[in-house]
Amino acid sequence: MKEIGIKTEYITLGQFLKLSDCISTGGHAKFFLQENTVIINGEADNRRGRKLYAGDKVEVEGCGVFTVGKA
């Protein structure tokens, strides 16, 4: 499990996917989420604006399992 550190209170799912190297640009987030399953804290979610906070666990199909941490 890889930790992605954030300096702000939260990060959106679209920004998270870019930081975790699952997508190359933020513009790919919409299409990526339409084709891949993302599970946040045990629940499937495909909203690129979903806010992620420190301590959240994110499982991205084909990319891996991550946690959000404070940088």
General description of the model:
- This protein is an alpha+beta fold.
- The protein has a single domain (2-70), classed as RNA-binding S4 domain (Structural Genomics Hypothetical 15.5 Kd Protein In mrcA-pckA Intergenic Region, Chain A, Roll).
- Helices cover 20% and strands 38% of the residues.
- It has two helices and seven strands, in the order ββααβββββ.
- The strands form two sheets. The chain has a five-stranded mixed beta sheet, with no helix packed on it. A two-stranded antiparallel ribbon has the order 2-5.
- Strand 3 and strand 4 (43-44) form a beta hairpin.
- It is globular.
Write the layout of secondary structure elements.
Layout: E1 2-6, E2 10-12, H1 13-19, H2 29-35, E3 38-40, E4 43-44, E5 51-53, E6 57-60, E7 64-70
Radius of gyration, rounded? 11 Å
Strand order of the largest sheet: 1-7-6-3-4
Order of helices and strands: EEHHEEEEE
CATH hierarchy class name: Alpha Beta
Kindly report how far apart the N and C termini lie. 16 Å
CATH superfamily: RNA-binding S4 domain
The largest sheet, given as strand count, sense and whether it forms a barrel, is: 5 strands, mixed
Subunit arrangement of the protein: single chain
